Amino acid sequence: MTQQPHDSDVAFIQALAELLNKNELTELVVKREYGEDDSLEVRVVKQATVVAAAPVTYAAPVATAPAPAAAAPVTVAATSDPAAHPGAVPSPMVGTVYLAAEPGAEPFVAVGSPVREGQTLLIIEAMKTMNHIPAPKSGTVKRILVDDGTPVEYGTPLMIIE
């Protein structure tokens, strides 16, 4: 490290910080030699904020069919995190959700629909490929947690089957 401060060091460090931001870098390490026993080593690090650390969840259920007049009482599992529900169907990939085969068509399933294991629940478009997402088990669709045309991440709960 340098024994005496150089006036240009501050300007040099500021220029490195600007270069870091301008080029969207996270770290720069530079060693500047002034002489035989005189040098300056600078490490500029930008703290990265991780945005996609937690899976995206959609709290508002989508009602695709009219609700019956006498609805069942809401349980604690229905109001808690849908991803923790034992009947949650997670997204196996990143993509865009489509609840029907084509725009204007009937959805594959609706809240209250009985489903068989392997039956198509919805489609996720990923890289221009339409992927049919099958029911992992037989049961009844209790909640649909995504809207038609919504982007989803890997692991995002799509619906709940009980």
UniProtKB/TrEMBL annotation:
Gene3D superfamilies: 2.40.50.100. Keywords: Biotin, Fatty acid biosynthesis, Fatty acid metabolism, Lipid biosynthesis, Lipid metabolism. The keyword Lipid biosynthesis applies. GO terms for biological process: fatty acid biosynthetic process. Pathway: Lipid metabolism; fatty acid biosynthesis. It comes from the Bacteria. PROSITE patterns: BIOTIN (PS00188), BIOTINYL_LIPOYL (PS50968). One of its GO terms (cellular component) is acetyl-CoA carboxylase complex. GO terms for molecular function: acetyl-CoA carboxylase activity. Signal peptide: none annotated. Residues 86-162 form the Lipoyl-binding domain. This protein is a component of the acetyl coenzyme A carboxylase complex; first, biotin carboxylase catalyzes the carboxylation of the carrier protein and then the transcarboxylase transfers the carboxyl group to form malonyl-CoA. PANTHER family: OXALOACETATE DECARBOXYLASE ALPHA CHAIN. This is Biotin carboxyl carrier protein of acetyl-CoA carboxylase. The gene is accB.
